[in-house]
Amino acid sequence: MIISRNISLFPYNTFGLDVLADFFAEVDSVDSFRALMLDSVYETNERLVIGGGSNILFTKDFKGLIIKNNIQGIEEKKLSETEVLVKAGSGLPWHSLVIWSIAQNYGGIENLSLIPGLVGAAPMQNIGAYGVEIKDVFHELEAIDMQSGELAKFQIQDCEFGYRESVFKNKFKNKYFIVSVTLRLANLQQPSTIYKMKTAYGDIQHTLAEMQADGTSIKQVSDAVIKIRQLKLPDPKELGNAGSFFKNPTINSAQFEKLIAQYPLMPNYPNVSNKEEIKIPAGWLIEQCGWKGKVVGNTGSHLKQALVLVNYGKASGSEVWQLALAIKKSVLEKFGIEITPEVNIY
Ligand code: EPU
């Protein structure tokens, strides 16, 4: 097992922050993870597993061991005439799994096209976009207990999925290393499979119409999602960012009534997991506070999607964090709503 020292994390985080890690190791199998566990560096240091580095903000150098996940592979197993189980290595880029599924004509994750990051990170924060979350197609995952080295299986009820939440971000934070994720997808190779594509999310219908597509194939839906994302979300290769920086907050009905009277155009959605609450897009709140497209030093809120904070090239992590705190403060002052980061802060 090779453990490197004083490694720049610049290529390993999509914010493009040039921070140093004391130690760095790459793992490509269960065995190589267990080999790493035997090294004293593993035992004596703080550890952080990273995938695509697409949901992380380093505000300073990392004093510990970074474990980069590189476990590959896709296996499939027939579950029934109409459903298939697809088991993917946690180090595979998520979007390459989406592309593979579409090529096989397996439906379920086409709305999650072009989400950055690796397969292993997808259940961690229950990735979601355009009306679908990974929990909708999740079957099970395998993970190594980072203390004992034992392999454990997690079923859907064990994962405690919520909006951008799971047990792996909470009580099991830094306790498990996800090895593989198995999804249950619709086998559309079979003409008898009944599958309803999710195209209700506003932008999808509109984009399909623009593309003159009838929305009857998963490829079309994927293409529409890709088009929407490319229009709104900056490509991290061109402009450092980590997607939505904050979660969309929820408020109670009393607060909602007060705000909607004052801001009749405020977009709002029912919170599916709690009927008493209303979800407000953080992007709208941030835009109303005047941040959209604003450049502050080397950072800013993106011109096309206020919820995305960007690094114009030379920003430090703490500069991005200062901007985030200023945005959070102004949203609280103007609307009385507390917004919290979706991105992991280190
Ligand atoms: N809006 C504005 N101004 C903005 C941005 C958004 O007014 O600058 C308002 C618009 O009214 C728009 C509404 O906010 O209709 C929602 O915007 P959008 O459809 O872009 O989605 P979002 O709620 O901002 C969420 C996810 C995204 C995901 C999209 C599509 C979160 C934190 N973000 O964004 O996920 O791609 O929905 O489903 O839930 C990510 O997690 O990194 C991410 C990009």
Structural write-up:
There is one protein chain. With 346 residues, the protein is of the alpha+beta class. The protein has three domains: 4-69, Uridine Diphospho-n-acetylenolpyruvylglucosamine Reductase, domain 2, CATH 3.30.43.10; 74-232, 2-Layer Sandwich (Uridine Diphospho-n-acetylenolpyruvylglucosamine Reductase, domain 3), CATH 3.30.465; 240-345, UDP-N-acetylenolpyruvoylglucosamine reductase, C-terminal domain (Uridine Diphospho-n-acetylenolpyruvylglucosamine Reductase, domain 1), CATH 3.90.78.10. Helix content is 27%, strand content 27%. The chain has ten helices and 21 strands. Strands 6, 7, 8, 11, 12 and 13 form a six-stranded antiparallel β-sheet that branches. Strands 1-2-5-3 form a four-stranded mixed β-sheet. α6 (202-210) crosses α7. The longest helix is centred in the C-terminal third of the chain and has 19 residues, at 317-335. It starts with a strand and ends with a strand. The site of uridine-diphosphate-2(N-acetylglucosaminyl) butyric acid (EPU) has 17 residues, from β14 and α9.
